[in-house]
Amino acid sequence: MGVQIGELLPRKELELENLNGRKVAIDAFNAIYQFLSTIRQRDGTPLMDSKGRITSHLSGLFYRTINLMEAGIKPAYVFDGKPPEFKKKELEKRAEAREEAQEKWEEALARGDLEEAKKYAQRASKVNEMLIEDAKKLLELMGIPWVQAPSEGEAQAAYMASKGHVWASASQDYDSLLFGTPRLVRNLTITGKRKLPGKDIYVEVKPELIVLEEVLKELKITREKLVELAILVGTDYNPGGIKGIGPKKALEIVKYSKDPLAKYQKMSDVDLYAIKEFFLNPPTTDEYKLEWKMPDEEGILKFLCDEHDFSEERVKNGLERLKKAVKAGRQFTLDSWFKK
DNA sequence: CGAATTCA
DNA sequence: TGAATTCGG
């Protein structure tokens, strides 16, 4: 998923204080997918309510959003719209991979290999329309803004950041840099511990910041060249890229070639120039309003506890934290206003 | 993943 | 207490 240019990009660790008071546009699909794939039982089964409906994404979204708000970070979630036609191949590839993983999950389960089962269950994760609807509903009840992108969410998030309506975009993927976000935050979580799949090794995962301007300066290229580089290496729109060309070689190529795509267009069955154009000028919208409101407590209790069997005690505790955070955030905004 | 609980 | 483990839905 996403572009494979990570190793080329300079980045710096972010302390939470650096994000205090800042608005961030979060790639909703990216977040939901991660919750869905990681919040699971030992055999790989996701969390579900008594009617068998998946709730892993709601749990993750609820608690992480509260954590972010408590840290003074104002999240706005950006949802994908209609994917571009040329993403079809990648989407089909993902669907195929999921089906294969599903089979392997069942096999591992049949022979009682829980570790393998979970691994394949995670790969079989599918973010469907129902999960998206649930997520939007929860955010609305929480008073957290969400934005409907006309096309790619990463493109919309980049647009909002480049307009200065949010400070940064947030995703694990690097695509929003190609779409022109001035800042990309990765690993946007508060409790930063991740267990490596192999053994019982825990690694601290801190938020990191990638600044587009610094990327271009470091690589000595323009954004247009960065997009060409990414296309050579491979994006969601041309999976795999050009055979035999990795990030290092691609960087050299875009530097010395005036029109790097020309040579490789012949050996590619997709329109590389259309992909480039899409990254440079993606569909976006101005139809959004970023407002962080007090949560609808009654609505949340009904939705999470009554409908989806969440623990009332836990949810009420979360709500208290959220209310406090919203108030504190308003105070922060007022303080910085009077200090001007 | 993140909250709650257990462990040393 | 802080780290490790288990539970959550």
Automatic annotation (TrEMBL):
Q: Which PROSITE patterns does the UniProt record give?
A: XPG_1
Q: What does this protein do?
A: Structure-specific nuclease with 5'-flap endonuclease and 5'-3' exonuclease activities involved in DNA replication and repair. During DNA replication, cleaves the 5'-overhanging flap structure that is generated by displacement synthesis when DNA polymerase encounters the 5'-end of a downstream Okazaki fragment. Binds the unpaired 3'-DNA end and kinks the DNA to facilitate 5' cleavage specificity. Cleaves one nucleotide into the double-stranded DNA from the junction in flap DNA, leaving a nick for ligation. Also involved in the base excision repair (BER) pathway.
Residues given in the record as Mg(2+) 2 binding sites: D173, D175, D236
| Annotated family | Belongs to the XPG/RAD2 endonuclease family. FEN1 subfamily.
Q: Which residues form the XPG-I domain?
A: 140-221
UniProt subunit comment: Interacts with PCNA. PCNA stimulates the nuclease activity without altering cleavage specificity.
Q: Tell me which domain of life the UniProt entry assigns to the organism this sequence originates from.
A: Archaea
From the Swiss-Prot or TrEMBL record, give the protein name.
Flap endonuclease 1
Annotated spans, N-domain: 1-98
Q: Name one GO biological process term.
A: DNA replication, removal of RNA primer
Q: Which residues bind Mg(2+) 1?
A: D27, D80, E152, E154
Q: Where is this region: Interaction with PCNA?
A: 330-338
Limits of the XPG N-terminal domain: 1-101
UniProt entry keywords in alphabetical sequence: DNA damage, DNA repair, DNA replication, Endonuclease, Exonuclease, Hydrolase, Magnesium, Metal-binding, Nuclease
Q: Does the keyword Cell inner membrane apply?
A: no
Cofactor(s) the record lists: Mg(2+)
What does the note under cofactor report?
Binds 2 magnesium ions per subunit. They probably participate in the reaction catalyzed by the enzyme. May bind an additional third magnesium ion after substrate binding.
Query: Is Nuclease among the key words of this record?
Result: yes
Species name:
Thermococcus litoralis (strain ATCC 51850 / DSM 5473 / JCM 8560 / NS-C)
One example GO MF annotation? 5'-3' exonuclease activity
**Per the UniProt record, which EC number(s) apply here?**
3.1.-.-
